[in-house]
Amino acid sequence: MLKRFFILCSGVDKDIVQNCSDGEQNKYAGIGATVFFTAVMAFLAGSYALYTVFDDYYVAIFFGLIWGSLIFNLDRFIVSTIKKSDNFMDEFIQATPRIALAIIIAIVISKPLEIKIFEKEINTVLLKEKNAMALNNKKEVANYFQSDLDKNKAQIDSLKSDITKKEKEVNDLYAVYITEAEGTAGTKKLGKGPVYKEKREKHDASLQDLTTLKTTNQAKIADLEAKAKTLQADLDKKVSETQPIIDGFDGLMARINALDKLPWLPSFFIMLLFLAIETSPIIAKLLSPRGEYDFKQEDKEMGIINVIAQNKYQSELQRKTDAEIYDKVYEDIKDDKELYDYKKKGAMELLKLQADGFVEKQKKSM
């Protein structure tokens, strides 16, 4: 049963191959098995490739079955249309476009399987790329908010600087009136005289201004710091919103590009393996001598060609014979008086009707 199934996969005429020897049947069963297992590999490759696109097992399996069936049909067609002859060059020219198609199919099938085989290495490459993308994304988002953050920080620093300057001014005035009271500077008179009082009042006024400035600036600083937190929160939100896009950077195209960044030799040999599998039925047919099946198939085709040629010749001969008979018949009846009178009568009636119709049209137009 398995042998019959593989023979069916090879695309041969089952009525012919059943009458061939076991060796001939085994040859085509082997070719059919290659076609079948190539289709199975195409199904696996197509399912995996589409799973990386849709992330859905059922969709991937459905389209994988369609892809595997398509490859099976193409391979079966390629093998079944190569016919053996006595001229190898004619066979090779006949097989050239089929070999080219087989090469394309082999490359298409091998690429998704290469991606699956080297999945761990590809994931490492993708991880590095994702990390680099995350860093670049964070820098770009930070650059977008940087001007607002810098402006906000500059305003806070300016307000703090104003407070610091005012505090220095108050401290200096404090030192002035203290040294005046001690008699170590200013008028150098010990005690709290008029000058001391004047300097003390100036210090107290400046201290009051400092208190007011601190209250005003600290309120402004609090607002600016709240704004800075909002800006930072927006920055973090923007980064977190774009991170899922980076995390999802592992589709089919990304994996193919990552595969290209790995050493090419292992991937090349896997492609060669599938190329050998895909082209092996064609090459086997080209290199094998004409077998029992080929002779019987040619004999059957020649029989059909002969029947068609004979039918065509008989049809042409019948056409010519009928034409000659009718020519003779018409020649014999051409001078028949009865037929002449009958034709004349019909022609006269037709002419009368045409004349009457013409007169009626003329009357209507007047």
Automatic annotation (TrEMBL):
InterPro entries tied to this protein: DUF4407
Native organism: Flavobacterium ponti
TM regions (residue ranges): 28-51, 57-74, 95-113, 264-287
Keywords: Coiled coil, Membrane, Transmembrane, Transmembrane helix
Superkingdom field: Bacteria
Pfam families on file: DUF4407 (PF14362)
Coiled-coil stretches: 149-176, 214-241
Name the UniProt record assigns to this protein: DUF4407 domain-containing protein
Lineage, broadest ranks: Bacteria, Pseudomonadati, Bacteroidota, Flavobacteriia, Flavobacteriales
